């Protein structure tokens, strides 16, 4: 009953029938109370998003796996203190962190959300040292800015660690698998022989026991009844003698350690048609086989076909004491102990007796053809080991490329990240995750057109494989595609995307961020703010939602609330440079220029290649009367992104305020060719030409600025400048006073 319920629960979990798994597991725990079954019920609760139920049933448990599940439940319930206590060693449980690499990874997340950066970095590194394939730990290190180069993390040390882990898993698995398969095989043989006895009335009870070979009879009973050297399944030694499945050919010489009477006893079940093939010559051969050395018998049977693939009737080899004293590894079994069942001479109708003996025959064949040296290496054959090592090498090389690209991206070295991802094969490059990384790189480079192309491709892939890629779809579009469409002012596409995400999952915070971006593009900041706040209600740790709330408060000139939102975002992720940038812009509007400069510097430490942050940092320096530093910062911003017109415009503005009109005019003439539709550029050129007393050109540029539909406030200023063109500078100064 217990095994049946256990198997049913595991099956339900694998088939995502969580409520049914919970019901069956509750019955299991009531009938067979144990902490192991309690762990299984907790797994069912966690799979069904019932962390509170798992929390209550696991509270006070002492086993390592129970502590890990309890800590995971606490983490889901945001009980970080209890989760840490459950994972760390104490007086009650001195063991290491339960769960191995997963336990250290969970502890690292707990420390990160608690604001203990150094401790979280230590735990993530510990998780990677225990399991080099714990990619999420490396990703968290990249997010914290503490990741080492991928070539160092996924090095030869990691390869040796994986080899040891794989070998240990193979040996452990093979031991359990061999015992299970031996038991199943012997049970099947016993059932078949029980069926055979129904057709042989009149036989003695002793003969029936000889034929059944059941596990219920002790080994001593077998030896007394058979008077032979045969041993039962509990010894896991030489296989039992069986009949050939082929009816029209003599059975193979498989009875190497059996006495003749036992063989005849089994053969008598099938009548005279089988008995006629057992001649005196064969009896002599059997006796000779028993006397020969094992190596000679193997040489005589080289004609038996060997195959590297399992047939339906294949089974594991039973080892004799002369062959080995231990159970071979799984790789050794797969590489050395498989044969291909012969299909020649099989009749159209196969009786239960014939099919029942097929597996035992193949076992005996294998027992005759396997060399003693096959088991000298418990880790498998050299070919298996080479396959294992080459497989580990391929995986680590792939992780090196992905790790380098991911690290460069989170260090905002986006050009380098794009070059690294180009090294991937076509199959790996066209996966969702890699394409998303490429789209993010273009987004951070402010190449919104290429970012839009890449994200649109991912969108198409997700649409093809929905609903399997729903989570990928949401993650991709929440933070980036909706922002890309907002920057490109694609209002209709952004609205369609928001509707699509709502139809997929209304309870996802990413969905409401996309809806909020749609309203923000329409200048409906109050509604956008409500959408972002709804996203925060669904996930309080969603950093970007707090930052977007801050942007909307700033647009509504609610700078105090904006500052609170940015601070909250930074409390979740200190490397979220957008929040530092938002704080700087808030202080810039409040004319707190020194504070603004500090915030921009913090943002630049995280993303040192953002020309936009450099530009506004230069503006803060200029307003602080630090003009030389401001000009240097503008030059750095121009070099960082030559396509960005903003630093060139503000550089010309600073030069004009310093009275260097010729340099300012030169910069603006270059900028006019790059951005001919910017009214502010033509307006500033008009002011400079007015100062240079080139009134005709000044009027021309003022008129051009008005034709480009500037904002009402800017249009009023431009008209005022045009009216003052003929007014002497002295009178203009007096009017301004």
Detailed description of the structure:
With 737 residues, this protein is mostly helical. Helices cover 69% and strands 0% of the residues. The chain contains 40 helices and no strands. It has helices at residues 2-14, 18-31, 35-47, 51-58, 64-76, 80-87, 101-113, 117-130, 135-143, 150-153, 156-196, 205-212, 219-226, 260-267, 272-275, 280-291, 294-300, 330-336, 352-369, 382-410, 414-421, 426-429, 432-444, 448-464, 470-487, 491-504, 509-521, 525-538, 543-555, 559-572, 577-589, 593-606, 611-623, 627-640, 645-657, 661-674, 679-691, 695-707, 712-723, 729-736. Helix 21 packs antiparallel against helix 23 (432-444), helix 26 packs antiparallel against helix 27 (509-521) and helix 32 runs antiparallel to helix 33. It starts with a helix and ends with a helix. Mean pLDDT is 74; it is low at 177-379 and 467-471. TPR repeats lie at residues 101-134, 509-542, 543-576, 577-610, 679-712. InterPro entries: TPR-like_helical_dom_sf, TPR_rpt. This is Cell division cycle protein-like protein. It holds the Pfam family TPR_19.
Write the layout of secondary structure elements.
Elements: H1 2-14, H2 18-31, H3 35-47, H4 51-58, H5 64-76, H6 80-87, H7 101-113, H8 117-130, H9 135-143, H10 150-153, H11 156-196, H12 205-212, H13 219-226, H14 260-267, H15 272-275, H16 280-291, H17 294-300, H18 330-336, H19 352-369, H20 382-410, H21 414-421, H22 426-429, H23 432-444, H24 448-464, H25 470-487, H26 491-504, H27 509-521, H28 525-538, H29 543-555, H30 559-572, H31 577-589, H32 593-606, H33 611-623, H34 627-640, H35 645-657, H36 661-674, H37 679-691, H38 695-707, H39 712-723, H40 729-736
